[in-house]
Design a protein that fits this description.
Largest sheet of chain A: 5 strands, mixed
Helix content of chain A: 25-40%
Strand order of the largest sheet of chain A: 1-2-3-5-4
Mean pLDDT of chain A: 95
CATH architecture of chain A: 2-Layer Sandwich
Order of helices and strands of chain A: EEEEHHHEHEEHEEH
Number of helices of chain A: 6
Distance between the termini of chain A: 38 Å
Strand content of chain A: 25-35%
CATH topology of chain A: Ribosomal Protein S5, domain 2
Radius of gyration of chain A: 18 Å
CATH class of chain A: Alpha Beta
Oligomer: homohexamer
Low-confidence stretches of chain A: none
Number of domains of chain A: 1
CATH superfamily of chain A: GHMP Kinase, N-terminal domain
């Protein structure tokens, strides 16, 4: 049987912690960790929407992802100093935004804007999936803040579901859940799966880093991912006290 | 039965044309069209590799994607004038590069660099999948150019397989192949599938734009995509005279 | 007698083709070729003018020029990736804009904006003169589109004349018309001439790349250029079916 | 007698905590808090120096400061997205670097580079002084790491002293130590003082935000600052276990 | 006794000239020289304020500092070509703006904007202090221009005081006034002092470039600076014909 | 007879002054004025050439043009702050560089680099022609500096001729020499002429701002320009003491 370096079962998450309300400044926040990966997620609530959306009775949710320069084992140059945001950063920011919007009913949100910032303080694989999972907690709290302030209608249900994400991959031919950097860098196939609390897919992104994969392998990965997302959904509910 | 606006069957590609060798300047090139989507793909062959790769006996393949400002129905501002490359552009450039590298044996390529440019001259949905499909033809010709010049070893097989891509989506609950803009903008789920000529997956990117999707829908989409990629593989072979 | 590499007479244009309406998206378009130089010109018509011009009853015409990275024999880096538009690009964009505005009566155009994009798909000398010549065709069609839509008054004459441009130069002491790259790179003097259909000058830009030139040489170049522009004027009329 | 909003004495620091070794990736690190201000300081040790310094037998120490977008009460735009680093960020980065270099003997450090990143996770006044104070702890640990790895000579003393910094200011005519945002924004005069562990000045930056100040006021501020830096020096020693 | 390279006493300014009204374009201007340092200061007066300040009955004063590429002994790259403004430029621009605002009563100024540009034509130490000193003269004239045009109320006193600045430093243990480059580059401690005409401090910025400094040294530097600012105040009054 | 606003004859230059050696920092310099237009030209001499030119025994001459923000009647934003160099700036920089290179024998110059900076301190039309005319004086002195230092061979003749430039234009149908802003802004045709001291053309740039122009008008403008350049050549010789 395959043993993982950290002794986990193939379908087991790393230790996950969610420190809800870590920030005293943001309307919603969570410091989430998937093992050594730590992401600070803050949700900023603003009454009103960007000009191009005004007057339609709908809200707006967007996200930005970034990594501190020394989150990783080798220091990388700041994107602010390079003067441009890299392709990877852009791509993950867009992914997080799409994932969150999939469970937001913008009509019910009303003309309010939520900006979710996911800043990776320490990186050890799975930063995008930890970001999505923590961002949901921050988002949920910021929406409740907006409700208390009267910006969101009392009986409105802006959140149609919860959302969580996890990585899966094939290493040495074996599908595994929640890859740390040491596994991720060796994976032949790497997949990120975003699912709702009710178990439907919102995003499936699989890439053959080495050998192409077939339908059977794809099915195994999807199953592992569904298990991981279900486990995260439980942890999110606990963090939110529901 | 569902009728599509352009009269196509649900599993039918739009008319595809591949003008191989369209450019008299590049080492390999193809002007590919998927219906009204037209992409000029050029492959630039350079003997030698970037400094960070030198001395390892391996080659390098990368890709850049861009759209002319009036490729679309409304003119968009040039990224050169904005002074930054947008997230979508970055994301697609990276996707094309990954797709091509999946069928390149960089050891067999030797210390040579291939840059594939995919410039969308006219856009009507499916620009990234047309880009990948056309890029493969340009790449194949540029590698043969390198062999003729003696930069690639006579018996080397730098291409382990061919690569093609297609979009699929669910519109009004019905899965369909190769979406033009009018369908794409209405799709509840949108998926891009990249496959090798031998029928294995290299990249699967599915996104719920509207309602989340379930495993059964995902399976239907994968099947349609496999059919489309197989059809494109035949057209690529014909274009390359094989 | 001097023989040119491609067998042309000294005052003879390269083969010129104008594919009017090449783009199905733009309000006016032309794919123009001067020998191996190919430029896609699109004209985008927008009802209304930039804020700084509003309320004066006048329209606005501007142009942008760019080259695909592999239009030339060696690939050049994209200006979008460099993050800045180069001096040469700026200079030619401004030249094309000035040339077009010289034949547009902005009062007759009314408060409408035309943006002409000239994207060089393949470059072999004379890209700026081909751009101006093709841009006029795209512009003329876009204005007619605006008339049909009711944005331009029925009897208005926004175009006071046609406009065309050609390069001339002195190679080994001999003045010649319409230089491809191989001649242009050897020219002692290089001149671009922009003229109206009625034979007047709009722009004369002559530069001594090698030895300075005298008045007699200048006069010869101007005469050759006038001949070339007159020939192009005929081709423009044919393309526009007039 | 003047009472401060948080009940502190005029010459009293806010609660200070220093979590040494917070990061598992960096060679030295500290999460420092001055009240609600929280800064993550990481020190990255690289053997070797930038090219312009090579071969002189001297090391290099530099620092970068930045704030997370939602560190403050209102979200600010990321500098990576603006495409440029703001004046305030630049100024503080330069200040931190100068402060650290004042206690580093670059000859004793040898040809090694230390980059200190100070990222403000939460801001409530005094972010630059907390950064300097925490950066010293991260720096000290990274130098010891370098010594253990053999990059720094066994008996070398790269640190000639410790360094700490604190803000002082005059509010309603009363000089006070360590201003949180609510005080800082009302201060007539605002001063940042950087001092060595042995009680000498490295940097004094005083600015009249309201009324200009006289020599007597300046002397009072300097005395308060000296007291605050001495208190921080004790805390730094404790954190470093000395 | 210490002799300075240029024969000056320790508390003596370099020859200072102020050519008031040097520019025929700006509303106020001065070409100021401190020895070989020459700075062109222009003040641009605009009726109205930036949008974020509108309707509050207050004016706005800001400053920008820059150096010509060959102001210094070695040519430096233009910041316009680098595409970003350097940290030092930002820092000095902010300093000049703060210094000027310290003597402007923005209520008395009314809703008017003053932009002061300080462009260093030649640099030999003390460019920021010469800039502040010259900027005051340009500012004073521009305010009078605004009064003549009726934009500033007849009896309003927008200037509460005058402002001047000078550098001081410790070289080989000896405090000195107004350092040219040759002294500045050797200084152990370097301080810039900004004072009002009535002798109060607006800004004190002292930095230990070499050994840290103590309170006694700081006091000596402040005294020298006060003397220098008083001398400059006299010269400003003469230049303004008061 | 046409009278000009400033009383000049149609073929008369504005008062021209050339302060040679204005800068104490640059190897060559001139502060040139054409009426109220004032340009500071500095020439920076560096032994050695850019890497791409090394080893060919040839030198390099390049130029950069810029305007101070308040050189003009209305303040314009700094290009360093915009983060990009405008089209006009680029175009004029390139023009100055080409003009100077036309009289430099780069073989005779040897492997040395000259960067000419032309910074417009005050603008009243003709800034590019004043720049070229002043730049030649700065260049000539910098080359002599290089000869004295032994970087340029004793008997080498790097300057094959002198170079000067002037603007001409047609206002109300009348051709005139050396247009100040008030004339330039009304000109129907605007032309810049760059000529060698021996009376040959290096650059001719004519643009119809209003009505297109014919050959007869062009000839008149060229004659006026030749007269103006000849007058400037005399002034350059006087400034250089020849």
């Amino acid at each position: 049987m395959t043993t993982r370096a950290d002794g986990r079962a193939l379908d087991q998450l790393r230790p996950v912690t969610i420190e809800r309300g870590w920030s005293s400044q943001a309307e919603g926040s969570a410091l989430i960790s998937f093992g050594d990966t730590k992401v600070l997620c803050t949700a900023s609530f603003t009454n009103g929407v960007p000009r191009w959306l005004a007057g339609q009775g709908k809200g707006w949710v967007t996200a930005e992802y970034a990594m501190l320069p020394r989150a990783t084992n080798e220091r990388s140059q700041r994107e602010s100093i390079k003067g441009r945001v890299g392709g990877r950063t852009h791509e993950i920011s867009r992914l997080i935004g799409r994932a969150l919007r999939a469970v937001v009913d913008t009509k019910a949100l009303g003309e309010n804007t939520l900006v979710i910032d996911c800043d990776v303080l320490q990186a050890d694989g799975g930063t995008r999936t930890a970001s999505i999972t923590g961002a949901y907690v921050a988002l949920a709290d910021a929406i409740e803040w907006g409700r208390e302030k009267g910006f969101v209608a009392k009986k409105a249900q802006p959140l149609s579901d919860s959302i969580a994400a996890i990585s899966v991959g094939i290493i040495d031919g074996t599908p595994m859940l929640d890859l740390p950097y040491v596994e991720d860098s060796r994976a032949e196939t790497d997949m990120n799966i975003v699912m709702t609390g009710s178990g439907k897919f919102v995003e499936v992104q699989g890439t053959a880093e080495g050998a192409p994969f077939d339908k059977a392998e794809l099915d195994q990965l999807l199953e592992l991912g569904a298990k991981g997302c279900a486990d995260l959904t439980v942890l999110q509910r606990e963090a939110l006290g529901r």
